[in-house]
Amino acid sequence: MFLRYSFSLFNIWHLTIFALFFVYSTVETQSKFIKRDSFLDRTNVPKNILAASPLGGGSHLVPMLEILKILVVRGYNVTLAASGNFTANSESYRSIPQIIIGNETGTSLMNEEFAKKVFLEDVDFNIMSKVFDPELYTKFYNIYKRITEEINVDLFFCDVGMNEACFDLAWQLEKPVVGFASNPIYASIPPSYKSDPVFGCHVNMENETFYERFKCSIIKPLQFMNVFMTIGNLLNEQRVNVGVEPIWDPRSRMKNILFLFDTFFGFEIPIPMLPLHQEIGPVLADTYPDLTPDLESFLNAHPRTMYFALGTNVFTSPQNIAILLKSCLELINQNIIDGVIWATVKTNITELMSFSNVDFPISDILNNNYPHIHIIKFAPQFAILSHENTKLFLSQGGASSSHESIYTATPMLVLPIMGDQFGNAEKLELAGIALKLSRLNLTFDDTILKIKRLLSEESFKNNAKRLSFMAKLNSKRKYRAADLIEIVMNSAKYDSIEDENGNLKTNNNVLLKDWITADTRMGFIRGNYIDVYGTFIILVLTLIGGFGYALLKVVKYLYTYYKARNSNSKSNTE
Ligand SMILES: *[C@@H]1O[C@H](CO)[C@@H](O)[C@H](O)[C@H]1NC(C)=O
Ligand SMILES: *[C@@H]1O[C@H](CO)[C@@H](O)[C@H](O)[C@H]1NC(C)=O
Ligand SMILES: *[C@@H]1O[C@H](CO)[C@@H](O)[C@H](O)[C@H]1NC(C)=O
Ligand SMILES: *[C@@H]1O[C@H](CO)[C@@H](O)[C@H](O)[C@H]1NC(C)=O
Ligand SMILES: *[C@@H]1O[C@H](CO)[C@@H](O)[C@H](O)[C@H]1NC(C)=O
Ligand SMILES: *[C@@H]1O[C@H](CO)[C@@H](O)[C@H](O)[C@H]1NC(C)=O
């Protein structure tokens, strides 16, 4: 009875509230609206940006230039310092002035012989690190310094690859600096469950044995410690030359500054990230070169085409190319695929022509006399991947190729050759969009089997479509990247000090205080709460120990007591 009464009372109460809301909201709809003010006051915000990438090359420069183009539209003054004559020869980025700081690099930081060793042999991190040339530090430091004397640089935008000089100069001149990399591994120590094949481990250690996890989190880092130390020492010698204090923690120049990573969840191994570390990828251009009429008619005539390209920097052995071509022929014979487009780029065709170790007409193919295989030196990659008849991409797994393949929902067969490509291959495989080959153990049967799987199993296409959706939405984040750089510039407007020459000086340790987490200021022990948890553990152990001790005493006492009583009663009965 009472229950029913209160229930109806509740209903009346409810209705009253509802009616009140209704009246209120009608009243509100009758009032006028104002537009939210989104005007940004950019007056007196520092405007000169120097972007620097000693490695140069499309894969490093294109994502940076895409972000810089947005900043140019917003009124910033942008200059690029990079190797190779890039922007002048590019239709999309011609508007950005470039200072050429070296010959086209990418891989030409290595000489040809060394590149061959790295691409064709089994090299570990130790050998890879030989690419590192400490003299380049001083060279680039001085170049950047000269540039800053000509243009009054307000912010440095530094590509992470071999670019310590850029970060150091920014700290030295007390100017804000933003880092750029394709992989978070370059700027922070990843959690133990993330590693990388360049260290002989896997990108995701989740299901590895105890032995593997021990090896990859303890032994490998110790093993490569001396490599890092050697590089660090060599760098410090160069630093002294140009008047920079030696730095013992390589990441200290990357601390407390904004870092942008051209990657995205779905592709990247998920890890917790600092607020200062922002994923803004995949950064892609808005327009790409279209298909040539030749390619267009080839693609239209071949509804199951595989696109084969190893990117602009790397190549593989003629033996491997022969295996891949033979596999293509077999798959065409079996009618699994009906066309192949191969962008040869760095592959030495002359060498391949004279390669006699094969049982198929390789010169016919290389001369483009075989109707199902179309060979060109450079290809409009994005347009080919976007074509509905391109069903598969045989790639080296470079970051930008991977992003483009995901964006266009094209499953991949990955043949990683160097650097981050091994890790990318694993990530793509884990994402369920790819299978990978081994350049040192490439076989005809394995290649055939994997291509058949990629084309017949529905899951690859499904995952490709799922990831494509993510890539498309996340590709808007280049605007976010530009926003974040603007926020740094604007903070510098408020938090810089003018010196006697009218130069703005910024303290990079506190400029981005809104993003910097407290633990970085608290020191290792307090920051990780080791003092608090340590004390807690000691307390618990003491309590457990004390309790155990007391228990032991009681048990011992009872034992002797009963023993004494027993023997007493025994002697009584006797
Ligand atoms: C931008 O660059 C141009 C040319 O270098 C220069 O004349 C101009 O003053 C710069 N603008 C700002 C705001 O520094
Ligand atoms: C860079 O390329 C442009 C356009 O091809 C050319 O005009 C210019 O001379 C080149 N600069 C250098 C330093 O080679
Ligand atoms: C670039 O290469 C040319 C010839 O290959 C060489 O003469 C020149 O010194 C190089 N320039 C730089 C900046 O390394
Ligand atoms: C590890 O195994 C679990 C359970 O089988 C699976 O869900 C997960 O995807 C695996 N992770 C990796 C990196 O293979
Ligand atoms: C290609 O290989 C041939 C024969 O091995 C060699 O003579 C030529 O220099 C190579 N070309 C390039 C660009 O490496
Ligand atoms: C080479 O690959 C085959 C399978 O394709 C595998 O059975 C073999 O163990 C591999 N060899 C090496 C040395 O990795």
TrEMBL record:
The species this protein was found in: Gigaspora rosea
Q: Which domain of life is it from?
A: Eukaryota
Taxonomic lineage per UniProt?
Eukaryota, Fungi, Fungi incertae sedis, Mucoromycota, Glomeromycotina
Known SUPFAM superfamilies for this protein? Answer: UDP-Glycosyltransferase/glycogen phosphorylase (SSF53756)
InterPro entries, sorted = UDP-glycosyltransferase, UDP_glucos_trans, UDP_glycos_trans_CS
Q: Kindly give the Pfam families that the UniProt entry links to this protein.
A: UDPGT
GO function term, MF aspect, one? UDP-glycosyltransferase activity
**What is the protein's name according to its record?**
Glycosyltransferase Family 1 protein
Asked whether the keyword Transmembrane helix is assigned, the reply is yes
